[in-house]
Amino acid sequence: MDRLTDFIRAHTVVIGDGAMGTMLQAAGLTTGGAPEAWNVARPDAVKGIYQGYVDAGSQIITTNTFGGTSYRLARENLESHVHEYNVAGARLAREVADAADHEVLVAGSMGPTGEIMEPLGTLTPEGARAAFAEQAAALAEGGVDFFLIETMSALDEVQAAVEGIRSVSDLPIAATMTFDTRFRTMMGVKPVQALAALHDLGVRVIGANCGNGPDEIERVISEMAAVKPDGVFLMAQSNAGLPKYVDKQIHYDGTPEVMAEYAAKMKALGVSYIGACCGSTPAHIAAMKRMLAE
What we know:
The chain is an alpha/beta fold. It has helices at 3-9, 21-26, 38-41, 43-56, 70-73, 82-99, 125-142, 155-166, 191-200, 214-227, 256-268, 282-293, and strands spanning 14-15, 60-62, 105-110, 146-152, 173-177, 205-210, 233-238, 243-246, 249-252, 273-276. The strands form two sheets. Strands 1-10-7-6-5-4-3-2 form an eight-stranded parallel β-sheet. It has a two-stranded antiparallel sheet with strand order 8-9. Strand 8 (243-246) and strand 9 (249-252) form a beta hairpin.
């Protein structure tokens, strides 16, 4: 059973959540620390963020495990904690989802390793698959409903993630890439190319996240929508505008009202799963929910 696509089919639009990093920083996370460590060190704070999005109307919440591969955690010498942090992040989200007054799914967040695949870099397909498999197994143990491969730039890394996941779990997979370099990913992948490649990998919930704000994602999703195969569901999770450095802090210029208009545009393009990314908060999701309900 594919709970993700069944859930999407049962709703006109599914509302995702917003930023995790933005909320963790507001709660006191400093740069240089591993956000995933908070799943164990400060579980109440992480759980509170999940709860804030559910209270705002999110129907899918995403685990605090974006950098949960051994490669990313190794930057803080925490690679031995892959299982612990991912299981904990998933279980906290599962607790919040199961206690919600509306049905909520849990997405297991899996971001890029931060390495570049050979021959340009040192990451091997085998190493990437093993890292993603390790993370996916822990997320599945923690109770996620599906895996969300997100903010990807390279198709070979997405393929490694899909293959790693499928080596340990048959849960559904959604995948998004970020097209922040003149409407291509950092590695030069175009939206239509990404859609075709992810479809060929068997992924059926496909889209874009992060990037340079709603206008960028609107164009990217428009290109995908024009060639979307039957049986594919589009998803969009835009940043809340662009970051600006004000009073020694980063602020995003996308207000809840701006993100509500973005949500309406995504719905008009046929997007089935609409959420937000960097700079967004429960207030943004609440405004999006109100707009989508109209």
